[in-house]
Amino acid sequence: MEKLQLTKDPVLQRDLEEIADSEMIQWERFRGKTILITGATGLIGSQASMALTLAGKKRDLNLKVLALVRNKEKAEKMLGSCLGHGLSFLVGDVTELPKMEERIDFILHGAGVTASKQFVEKPVETILTTLKGTQAMLDLAKSQEAEGMVYLSSMEAYGVVDPEHYIVKERDYGYIDPLEVRSSYSESKRMAEGLCAAYAHEYGLPVKNARLAQTFGAGIPQSENRVFAQFARSILKGEDLVLHTDGSKAHCYCYTSDAVLGLLKILLEGEPGQAYNVSNEETFSTIREMAQMLVDGYPQSGSRLVFDIPEDANLYGYAPPSRMLVNSEKLQALGWKPQVNLAGMYSRLMESMKGWKEFQKGQEE
């Protein structure tokens, strides 16, 4: 069979091939099925859409991927190569689903507000998009008698945990101030998880929650401005890595292809009503340690680590300082294991970013 090339980015294509070739997943469960993916133009949603399309073709599964998108033009730029190979678009909003004729067998629900500044500037929209969108997906899964659904939650659902007990499993929870405007995101994630658990209990719906550590890798959008993208750009441009906090926040991360495999594992083998952490524990580090790793690992860049801390960091939508090692034993017990460490994550990310015009232009000059 002719190789299906879904992207011009060789790093991303390799990631997609690794997912499609992985033996962690019971691919036959997807034979002849339709999977609906919301948030399909987001980082994880887009890569899940492409990887499932590729796996369907390589394994001759007759798998259909239905990508829910709000902006068809944006979706065509990102996922146009998948059209005609098992993927099709459903244009609409997750809170007001358009009519669909397709039978839906599986759902990956990842739509929601993800930009930190929006949590502060649009807290009402952040909350309502999460809750209304999740309810709409749960009702759809219920009416279709879907075989499985995964809600993409976040490690922020844990809140701020006790620094003395920073290793966090699925039954451990920290503190969230519901009156703090930045809590619009974390509180809505908790409530959406509770709604999923309620549907699992009351209606027997096979829905599971996936609590994702911060995920990044090849294929991030050029508009991405979270700290990992800022650090990678700075190294590639030979600029200083600037921290706007003291860098003491310590968390785990996960590479995109590892995260997609984790979600598929939960979708097919997770226990209904349960939550699973999707995290690479080996990546645990403070922001400052991560920045220093890059400065030390790429001395040819000439980049230094510097601090520029504003008086009120809350205006930037930064999460509260915390120290949290998100334990993934529960997911690993299903047979999942992350493959890419933190240095490898940045290596693949920056190799992918070299294909961006801003860096190609710099090389030409």
Characterise the protein shown here.
The protein is of the alpha/beta class and 365 residues long. The chain is 40% helix and 17% strand. It is built from 12 helices and 14 strands. The chain has helices at residues 10-21, 43-58, 72-79, 116-121, 123-144, 183-203, 227-237, 256-269, 287-297, 329-332, 342-353, 357-364; strands at residues 34-38, 64-69, 87-91, 106-109, 148-154, 167-168, 207-212, 214-216, 241-243, 250-255, 275-278, 280-286, 305-307, 325-326. A 7-stranded parallel sheet has the order 3-2-1-4-5-7-11, with helices on both faces. A 3-stranded mixed sheet has the order 8-10-12. A two-stranded parallel sheet has the order 6-14. Helix 1 crosses helix 2 and helix 7 (227-237) crosses helix 11. The termini are far apart. The mean pLDDT is 94.
Radius of gyration: 20 Å
**Fraction of residues in helix:** 25-40%
Let me know the largest β-sheet.
Answer: 7 strands, parallel
Report the structural category: alpha/beta
Mean pLDDT: 94
Tell me the overall shape.
globular
SSE blueprint and pairings:
Blueprint: H1 10-21, E1 34-38, H2 43-58, E2 64-69, H3 72-79, E3 87-91, E4 106-109, H4 116-121, H5 123-144, E5 148-154, E6 167-168, H6 183-203, E7 207-212, E8 214-216, H7 227-237, E9 241-243, E10 250-255, H8 256-269, E11 275-278, E12 280-286, H9 287-297, E13 305-307, E14 325-326, H10 329-332, H11 342-353, H12 357-364
Parallel strand pairs: 1-2, 1-4, 2-3, 4-5, 5-7, 6-14, 7-11, 8-10, 9-13
Antiparallel strand pairs: 10-12
